[in-house]
Structure formats: C-alpha cells, structure tokens
Design goal:
It contains 10 helices and 7 strands. By secondary structure, it is an alpha/beta fold. The radius of gyration is 17 Å and the shape is globular.
Length: 261
C-alpha cells in the first residue's frame, strides 16, 4: 500500500474472522505477529512500520507520521472502526492512535507497554543486565537474539530465534528519532488526554517483564474504561510464553458487549 506522502508499506491480513489492527514493537523493528494465534474468530491486520522490515526505508520518523500511517493501514483494508492491538512500543503507538482518532478504535489491547512516563528505563537496564549473558560481537541478528532472549522466563533462545526469522535490518535512525520524541511528551499531558478516552482498553502484563510494570500504573488510573490482566512468571511477549491464557484474555475482552459496534 502507498501512504498519502508516497511511502510504500507492507501489510497483510491473516485469518478470516473479525479484523484486529496490530501495531508491532520497536521502533525500527518489523511485524512479529506471525506467532500470534487468537483463534479462528479473528483476522490479524499486520504491517511493517515505515523504515522497517518489508516497508520502504523512508521518513519522516515522527509520532504524528506514525499515527497517520496506522490510520492509512486501517483505511486501506476498508475498515471503519476496528480493535487495535499493540505490543511494547506498538502498544504506545496504538494508544496514541486511539487518542488521536477515537472514533476509529472500538477497543485497545495494550500489551507489554511501558506506560506514560520516562522513569522506567534505568530499572529496565538493571533487570536486563542481571539476566543477559555475554554480549555477542555481531551487531545484527545475533545481537538481537541475545537481547530478546532476556525477554523470556522460559524458552528464551527458541522464542528469540523465531522472532528473528525472517530477519531484516534494524532501523536505528527511526528508533532514535521516535524514542527521543516520546521523551519530550510530559506524562501529565498524556494522563490528561487518557482521562477523556472512552475506548475500552485491556492492559496485558507479563509480571516477569524486564520493563517494570509499575510504569503502566498511571495509565491504568487515567483510563475511564480499563481492565488489566497480569500473568505471573511471563516476560515481555506473553502470547509466546502463555499462549492459551493470552488468547483467552484477549478474546474474552474483545467479545464483551463494551467492545461491540
């Protein structure tokens, strides 16, 4: 598909059921929802964000542009109003899209996000260093597998290998630009915006995630319509470590009356 500013984005629809628009993690990574199974009732609308994976390596890498790209993918697939499921950075992108275009989002599934503030990173770094092994010399795929292995409690190397297949170059320019812009948005500004958001939201946490889960507390307090599910002994990618429990929680939420229409 082509965006309004001429950027070519890769997108795919997997399954035949009700659509869910997925926002992958990063920034600068690509869609890894090929391992996500929500059952036959749902159809996953997947895409690679600009500059990453199978999409064109072209900026600008700004929050405003990324939000516009989410809307472009929704429109390209002919969807009027759709649930949005985001993971990690993609959870934050999904939230920003819901804040910008609430009339287009019927429900938000916020998976392993890092919250509205910016104080979580130091604890994340300490947690990562405690569990990570020796850093490989390779700066590409081997390094990513090493980093992602630490995101799991069990089966880390196997899960990380699956996430790195297929492999694409990481867009560090997009990662740096979007990470820096996120740091410029005050938490109080996001809290105020979330207090007016009427989109039903499910927050999903793996409680063994290296990213501290207290960082999401202010988001939970701010949202008027929110549920939160916590999985013990599960890390950053809960649909890989607890697939049945994750599927059950998400499908129960999305099929509830508050998510219809």
């Amino acid at each position: 598909m082509i965006t309004d500013d001429g950027c070519e984005l890769w997108t795919s629809a997997t399954g035949r059921g009700e659509p869910i628009l997925c926002c992958h993690g990063g920034p600068g990574l690509w869609d890894m929802f090929g391992t996500l199974d929500l059952g036959p009732r749902f159809r996953l609308i997947r895409w690679d964000q600009r500059g990453a994976g199978r999409s064109e390596a072209r900026g600008p890498y700004t929050l405003e542009r990324m939000i516009a790209d989410v809307d472009a993918v929704r429109e390209w697939h002919g969807l009027d109003r759709v649930p949005v499921l985001g993971h990690s950075w993609g959870a934050h992108l999904g939230l920003l899209y819901a804040l910008a275009r609430p009339e287009r989002v019927s429900a938000l599934v916020y998976v392993s996000g890092v919250g509205l503030g910016h104080e979580w990173h130091a604890e994340f770094k300490r947690n990562f260093e405690r569990v990570a092994g020796e850093k490989p010399r390779d700066d590409g795929r081997e390094r990513a597998i090493w980093q992602w292995t630490a995101d799991f409690v069990t089966g880390g190397a196997r899960h990380a290998e699956a996430m790195a297949t297929p492999w694409f170059p990481v867009n560090y320019e997009a990662n740096a630009a979007l990470s820096e812009e996120m740091r410029t948005v005050p938490e109080r500004e996001l809290v105020s915006a979330c207090e007016s958001l009427r989109v039903p939201t499910l927050i999903v946490d793996g409680m063994a995630d290296n990213r501290p889960r207290w960082a999401v507390d202010s988001l939970e307090r701010a949202l008027p319509s929110v549920r939160r599910v916590r999985f013990a002994d599960v890390g950053h990618v809960p649909w890989l470590e607890a697939p049945d429990e994750f599927r059950s929680a998400v499908t129960e939420f999305l099929t509830a009356p508050h998510c219809s229409g």
